[in-house]
Structures are given as C-alpha cells and as structure tokens.
Amino acid sequence: MTSLAHFEALAGSLKLPGEAVIDGKHVPSASGKTFANVGPRNGRILNHIAQCDETEIDAAVKSARRAFEDGRWRKLHYRDKKRILFKLAELMEREAENLAVLESLDVGKPITNALQGDIPNAIRSLRYYAEALDKVYGEVGPEAPDRFSFAVHEPLGVVGAIVPWNFPLHMAMWKVAPALAMGNSVILKPAEQSPLTALKLGELALEAGVPAGVLNIVPGLGAEAGKALALHNDVDMIAFTGSGAVGKLLMQYSGQSNLKRVSLELGGKSPHIIFADCPDLDRAAAEAAWGIFYNAGQVCTAGSRLLVSEAIADDFLDRLLGVARKIVSGDPLEPATTSGAMVSEEQMKTALRYIETAKNEGARLALGGKRTRVDSGGFYIEPTVFDDVNPEATLARQEVFGPVLAVTKFKSPDDAIRIANDTTYGLAAGLWTKDISLAHRAAREIRAGLVWINGWDSCDITMPFGGFKQSGFGRDRSLHALHKYADLKSVSITL
Ligand code: NAD
Fold this sequence. Notes:
Aldehyde Dehydrogenase, Chain A, domain 1, alpha/beta
C-alpha cells in the first residue's frame, strides 16, 4: 500500500534515532546537550539529537585510530570486507522504506523521490565500492637488473566525512563507501538539518559486522562538531560536500592543524544551454524543468541558469512553463507529490530573498515566486521562473539552492559558451544540439567537471563527479574516488 496514510503511519511508528554512534556504542553527548531536529514538512520538531562537540569528536577519533592501528578492518581479508559491506547493503534494502521515510521527514523531499532515488542510489553506491575493493592493483616499476620496485595503495588512516542535507544518505555514501573500501576508519558528521539516516546507517553498519570504531557517526553543529573534526590533529583527511564558505574554512583548519588532506565538493550555478537546433524541444523542456525543480532546487548540480537561443526562446519557455505548471507541490509523504518542502525556514527565506532581489534587478517573473502551503506550517516555495535575466544580475551569479530558474537568451553559440563560463563556479553544464561538432566544441570549452549533452544529469556512480574552479576539487564516484582515500607507497627491494 503506498498512500499518504501508509507513510504517515510508518512515520508515526518509527523510533527516530538521536544518539551518536561512537566506538560501536550508541551514546548521548557528554554535555547532555541536544538540538531540535525540525521537520520541514510542517515545521514541527521531529526529535532531539545529541549535540556533539569536541569531546565526542575526540572520542570518535581515538576509537577510529585504535581500529585503524590494530587492523581490525584495514587488515581484514578483502573477501571479508566485501562480505560485510554487501551485508550492509542488504540491511539497507531491508530498511529501504524506513530510510526513505526518515529522509522525507528530515529534508522535506517527496517520498517517491526518496524511495526511487536517494535510497536505492545510496545502496548502489555502496555495492559499487564493495565490488571494486578487490580490484585495486598497485604498479610494478620499470625493470632494473638489481632492483624490484612496486607501488601500493595504502589507506590514509582516519577520514572525516562532512556532508550536507540535500541528499543526506546518498552524499554520505559517496564518501563512506570508498573510504571504507580502501581500509580507512571513518567519522561521519551529518548536517544538523538531516542527521536521521546517517544515525540509522551507523546502527545498520554495526549489525552488518563493521567492527566497532570503524564507522562512527557524530551529529552536531557545523561550528562545533564539524570544526572540531576538521581541526583535529589525528584526522588524516576531510572529505566534504557543502558550501564554498565552509570549504574555505576547512582549508584553513587543515593549515592550522596537521595539513590533513581536504577534498571539496562545493556548489554551482550550472548553465543549461538550449541551442537553436535542439533535437527535441519537449524533452529538453522537461529536463530543464526537472534540472532546476527536482528536490526543490536544492541540488548542487541544479541547472539554475537556462541559456536559450533567441531563435527558439519564446516557444521553449512556453513548453518549460507548461511542464513546471504540472509540478505537484504537496505533502512530502504523499506519493503523488513531485515537489516537497525546502529543508528549513532559513533556506526558504534565503530563496525568497533572492526572488525579491531578482524582481528589483529587473528580471521578469514568468512563474511562481511565492511561499505556498503556508497553513501546513512547512517551508514550501512555488516553482519559480524568471525570464530576461541579465548575466550580470545576482540571480545569474549566486547560488540560490532553491526552485528558482534564471532564463537568459543568447544570440550565437559563442555567446552561449562565453556566458556559460562567466561564473566563479564549474560544477556541471548541459547542452542540447543536433550538431556533433558544436556539441564537442562546447563540451570541451565549458569549464565544468560534468557536461551532459542532450540529457540532464545523465551519468551515475560509474563516472567521476566534482567541480572545476570554486566548485571544488577531488572527485566522488567512479574508481577515481578510491584513490582519494589512499596514499601511494613506493617499495623497492635491492636484489
Ligand atoms: P554548509 O557548508 O553550511 O554545511 C555542510 C556541512 O558542513 C554540514 O554538515 C555542516 O554542519 C558543516 N559545517 C558548517 N560549518 C562548518 C564549520 N565551520 N566547520 C566544519 N563543518 C561545518 O552547506 P549546506 O547549507 O549544508 O549545503 C548547501 C551547500 O552545499 C550549497 O552551497 C550546495 O551547493 C552545496 N552542495 C554541494 C554539493 C556537491 O556535491 N558539490 C552537494 C550538495 C550540496
């Protein structure tokens, strides 16, 4: 049965996790402090979460270090690591519906998206790295008559993963799975807005047989728990997804402490270009709408700048608005809902401020622009489209992280590529054309880590994910991510 009543009943019956998972045990914060976890669906408090700080971070780091040093995970046979990670994937499948409800309650995302997207994608990512962990080979050096030299991948040690709230479990798994696959111990710090699935993951990992201390989950505020993790002298790496502002702080913390490695997946202002010879206007319009309105626009790769050729702009915008008007804004636990709440009141207010700024800067409001479902008490915004957005305007330059699309018209392909690149970000880009030369040229000239041609967000765990410029560095996904969690050691034997 998949109805609002079913998911509401499930939500009511679930015990919401609130304690940290450190050294194999569920623990409250030593200070006894908790913070309120507010559900964006209706603005009510879901539960209270352990407000961990440097005390718990230190305990987690010590536990993770002990586990690393005694080799309870690092030295485990690869077949056993694999078996345990596959077991974890099975347990996540067993709990998939519960995990989806937790994600929907915590983030306000439509339950159907959580069931069909977030949770299966997180499980797929885990399986991908579990399958890959015994396929990482070293190198043998060039032959020398008196020497045998080889290079091996060694785990880094203790990895801190700091993740955002938009795809909490999925983003966490992009880091936790490859870091564990390479033999590291991990401390996961979920975002304060969305700790539930991470805490549940900690519980399931213990059930699957991940040894105590190997995966610790420490919830808390960014400026307390996150900062303490990033400043800790015994953490070897911070793998981060989140805002550029925090990314810059993490690099400072690294310099102020032990020069730990830092990998950063930051935001974007991704251009979605519709050239005049777009092969399928309806499909492009549907994907352009999906590219900005999915997850209420709270997607780092959101196609938030639509660049459309003057020659087809009016027709294209009509089609796009047609798709956007069919979006069903509703209760996240209602299976028919296609657009849920924004994660927090603060995030909603930020998006509303950007909408006001866009109006004041002369953009034409073509759709939406208002808060909606106010009676629910939740944080909902209408899918919003601004036309005639000047490439210099705030809406064309700053990341909203909400369901707000900026449409800008261009005259020529060179014009489009120039505007696309006129940004401090470089995460993703999309383009639609029948011209294979233009497709290749634009794909090569656009400075972004991901370029999608004739389809938005069209690749998965098998392909690297990450940014150019201020969208960060280091790659999640694909086999490249495994190398991020290892050092290369050269060993040479004199014969
Ligand atoms: P955020 O940077 O405020 O928070 C992200 C994480 O960092 C949270 O866990 C938070 O607790 C922690 N944090 C905050 N301050 C910290 C500090 N001083 N030290 C250590 N940790 C700290 O970002 P957000 O508001 O959660 O997420 C929105 C941003 O994340 C957007 O800019 C978005 O583009 C970006 N994002 C990027 C990607 C990507 O893959 N590139 C994915 C999702 C979100």
